[in-house]
Design a protein that fits this description.
mainly alpha, 2% strand, two-stranded antiparallel sheet, 195 residues, 2 strands, 71% helix
Length: 195
């Protein structure tokens, strides 16, 4: 007889994970902002949504400065859409690919600055100003939340992911990454950190 495996939808999975991490990091966000983030995570889990498709069929990442320039040339509704995409891509990229950005031409701070600015402008233009204002105001904290979600996922994915998290922790000394490794049983808890 085969075992029945219960599975959550992608949305339920990210909601549960987001609740856990924002609780652990003591980040307070409104319910509507949490809903926005869960949908963002679910949407970008499909790489087609994160990247654009080039004419030759390759997937590529839109440069943030070009998105921003494009937004400045657009009418209000299109500008909101483009700035929102800029904020979303910046938040997701800075959170999930922070380690890779450290060795890139522009680092995570560039993504944080561009994303926070984009959300701030959307807050001024959009009827949903509260959500975008909160995303702007808590952008750096939310990047850290996504960074932890990414690290926990990598550790659960297997040895190569766990090794990447360990290497990032060894380079950065990040308390968040250390907590992920401690929780996974990969490093002993430091003095003062509860088991």
């Amino acid at each position: 007889m085969s075992e029945l495996v219960a599975s959550l939808s992608l949305t339920e999975f990210f909601k549960s994970l987001l609740d856990e991490v924002i609780g652990r990091q003591r980040v307070r966000i409104t319910e509507v902002t949490e809903f926005y983030l869960v949908n963002l995570l679910s949407e970008f889990a499909l790489t087609d949504k994160l990247f654009t498709r080039e004419e030759d069929g390759r997937k590529d990442h839109e440069p943030l400065a070009l998105l921003y320039h494009q937004a400045l040339q657009q009418e209000r509704n299109e500008r909101i859409r483009t700035l929102r995409r800029l904020g979303d891509v910046s938040l997701y990229t800075a959170g999930f690919f922070s380690s890779a950005l450290q060795s890139g031409v522009v680092g995570p701070d560039y993504y944080i600055q561009m994303g926070g600015t984009a959300y701030g402008q959307v807050a001024e233009l959009s009827p949903a100003a509260q959500v975008y204002g909160e995303l702007r105001d808590k952008f750096r904290a939310l990047v850290e939340v996504l960074e932890e979600i990414a690290a926990r996922g990598m550790v659960k994915a297997g040895p190569s992911g766990a090794l990447k998290v360990y290497e990032s922790w060894a380079r950065s000394g990040s308390d968040r990454l250390e907590r992920v490794l401690v929780d996974a049983g990969m490093v002993p808890p430091p003095k003062g950190l509860p088991n």
